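Incident log, support desk, overnight shift.

02:14 A customer reports that sequence design results differ from what the structure should imply. Their input is reproduced verbatim below. On-call engineer (initials T.W.) acknowledged and began investigating.
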């Protein structure tokens, strides 16, 4: 069945890591999930609604890949998309976090300055979304992205959703187009992971 309107897009932010807990910005540092993050992913897996025929795409960073595996099952194929990695520089991270209304800002001691401008980050995530949408074009598959809070904020920017939606660790966010192709975003109430 071929789609004639833009697809619904699902998004899952990775589960909690020790750096999330310690309020340290992770960027491209490959920080694994902690036990809480694994439990969040298992809880989300147990509460997922029927999403139909899905195609799962993930940032290649370990915290996203492990979340995808725990939520959607180890046997599910997960396509890694480099452009879905988190913002890589202090400047891009600060832009994203300020856009999200995060205060106070986390520590940026472990990521470089100047590696990527906010504009470069937004363009990279837009390329990542284009890659995903090319993969599901002409099919009935619904894309599910597993990535990072900054990536979700960049998606909101690209899809015209302002202010960006809050992205708690390991919750399912639904980006749904109307008949004109304008997107809205919905997420579960704060403190929950399910839809």
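02:41 Re-run completed on a clean worker. Output:
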């Amino acid at each position: 069945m071929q789609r004639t309107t833009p697809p619904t897009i699902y998004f899952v932010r990775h589960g909690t890591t020790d750096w999330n807990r310690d309020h340290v910005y992770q960027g491209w540092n490959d920080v694994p999930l902690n036990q809480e993050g694994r439990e969040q992913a298992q809880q989300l897996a147990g509460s997922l609604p029927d999403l139909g025929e899905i195609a799962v795409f993930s940032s290649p960073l370990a915290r996203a890949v492990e979340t995808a595996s725990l939520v959607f099952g180890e046997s599910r194929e997960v396509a890694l998309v480099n452009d879905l990695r988190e913002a890589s520089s202090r400047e891009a991270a600060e832009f994203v976090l300020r856009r999200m209304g995060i205060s106070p800002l986390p520590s940026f001691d472990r990521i470089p300055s100047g590696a990527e401008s906010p504009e470069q980050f937004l363009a990279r995530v837009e390329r990542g979304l284009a890659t995903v949408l090319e993969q599901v074009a002409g099919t009935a598959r619904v894309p599910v992205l597993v990535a990072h809070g900054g990536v979700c904020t960049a998606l909101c920017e690209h899809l015209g959703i302002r202010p960006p939606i809050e992205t708690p660790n390991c919750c399912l966010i639904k980006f749904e187009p109307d008949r004109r192709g304008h997107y809205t975003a919905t997420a579960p109430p704060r403190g929950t992971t399910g839809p």
